[in-house]
Design brief:
Length: 456
């Protein structure tokens, strides 16, 4: 037995294969585009490496695509066969069980398997990052933070994964409202691991949640190298920059980033679709004409109506379909979400039931300008939206839609309450969106008062 870059015992013995495996792990932490190539070489040269097959399965599972589940199940079969034919450590076996739980529809149990790994191997940075990633999909921000803070004492200053650990800690701190600590941790993460795009983006989240777009742009300026190596995660960092320009009313800059970076490669990865649809919807809510940009997103989303892997993905496909007024495909997607919600027989379909079904109906109604119904459905989903996964910044498009639906439906008091809650979550800060909506509410109340004055 040998040890990997994080000091973990591994059944790999060939130095070249071990080097590739270390690059897989470090690449996963850095969201590096080259990571799959290293994993392919590991499995080519060590086909009996059960943990390698399990990690391949988890990587594909996290992509949230129905057609890739066949690859996930194949990876699981290969991992199980490898366990039967070759030696493996107890830790490696737990990784296989992590994938077994996901395939069985229990990603929450996958998290517990990874926590079992971390109890015995707290310095296993791969397990830390995987737990973080799965909890992110499940909307478990508090769990992300608890998991990381349990293992932090095991990380010596020279541990190869410490910078990435701090990047994950920064994000978990931000998502649980500890903005000052998050900013410090994210900056330290990038100092220790200059390719830690996750830590860099955690600081961008801090600026978003503290409504300081100018400081956010300053933070990202000149640090492009920290995300240039990334897979499609790089589009997400550009998306954050676009949000900052949007808050400052710099629409030309937003449009340029959308066309040249965010949709540079017109993929149908749900994360890329979510970047694009949520940005276009924000622009439209602010009265900006986005031209024909909905069309290509709707074309891609029309092919995803039967996916059903993640409600977060489905809701963004729905944004694209309603944004381009694709009534037939919208109805098809809604029907499928409803079927899944009625079954509610696994972690993901339970999220289709809540918050998914109410949110989906709300998006459809908003797209049809039925604002009273939109507000009713979106308000019903509001309290559980974190369960859809993603971050506060990503889910904010649904908050904005809920508030705007309330204003357009004349539910001014209730819309104002949601604005107050949103502002409280931002440590009392007010961004451009909130300021504009408060002005709209005040104007609507003023008009109402004026109309109620008896004629002289």
């Amino acid at each position: 037995m040998t040890h990997d870059v994080f000091g973990q015992m591994t059944s790999l013995t060939d130095p070249g294969t071990l080097d590739d495996w270390n690059r897989v792990q470090l690449g996963f932490l850095a969201h590096a585009a080259v990571t799959p190539q290293h994993l392919e070489r590991v499995l080519r040269d060590a086909p009996g490496f059960a943990m390698g097959h399990a990690i391949k399965g988890m990587f594909y599972a996290l992509l949230g695509r129905r057609e890739l589940m066949a690859t996930v199940r194949e990876a699981l079969t290969n991992a199980q066969n490898a366990l039967a034919e070759a030696s493996a450590t107890a830790r490696e076996r737990l990784y296989v069980q992590t994938l077994e739980d996901w395939v069985a529809g229990r990603p929450s149990q996958s998290v517990q398997r990874l926590e079992t790994v971390l109890r015995d191997h707290p310095e296993d940075t791969l397990a830390m990052k995987l737990s973080h990633a799965v909890r992110f999909v499940l909307g478990d921000a508090a769990g992300m933070r608890r998991s990381i803070e349990r293992v932090m004492p095991a990380y010596a200053p020279d541990h190869a994964g410490r910078g990435y650990l701090l990047g994950c800690h920064a994000f978990a701190l931000e998502e649980t409202g500890a903005y000052d600590r998050a900013g410090i941790a994210g900056r330290q993460a990038l100092w220790m691991a200059p390719d830690d795009a996750w830590g860099l983006h955690a600081v961008a989240h801090v600026h978003d949640m503290t409504c300081d777009a100018r400081a956010g742009l300053d933070w990202l300026a000149g640090r492009e190298a920290a995300w240039a190596h990334c897979n499609n995660f790089r589009y997400h960092v550009w998306w954050h920059k676009a949000l900052m320009h949007l808050d400052l009313g710099q629409i030309d800059e937003v449009m340029a980033l959308y066309d040249l970076e965010i949709r540079k490669d017109r993929t149908d990865d749900y994360r890329d679709i979510s970047n694009a649809t949520s940005l276009l919807m924000r622009l439209e809510l602010d009265g900006v004409d986005v031209g024909d940009r909905w069309e290509e997103l709707a074309d891609l989303s029309a092919n995803r109506t039967q996916d059903g892997c993640l409600i977060f993905a489905d809701l963004h496909y729905l944004l694209a379909l309603t944004g381009d007024h694709r009534d037939a495909e919208t109805a098809t997607l809604l029907a499928r979400i409803h079927r899944d919600a009625q079954s509610a027989d696994c972690d993901m379909t339970r999220r289709m039931a809540s918050p998914g079904w109410s949110a989906a109906q709300g998006l459809e109604a908003f797209g049809e300008a039925r604002f009273e119904q939109a507000f009713a459905h979106l308000s019903a989903a509001h309290g559980d939206m974190q369960m859809a996964g993603g971050s506060h910044a990503q889910r904010d498009v649904f908050e904005r839609l809920t508030i705007d639906a309330g204003i357009r439906a004349g539910q001014l008091d209730r819309a104002e309450i949601l604005l107050d809650e949103r502002q409280a979550q931002r440590a009392g800060h007010e961004d451009g969106y909130a300021s504009a909506r408060r002005d709209l509410i005040a104007a609507a109340r003023g008009l109402s008062d004026a109309q109620s004055v008896p004629a002289q």
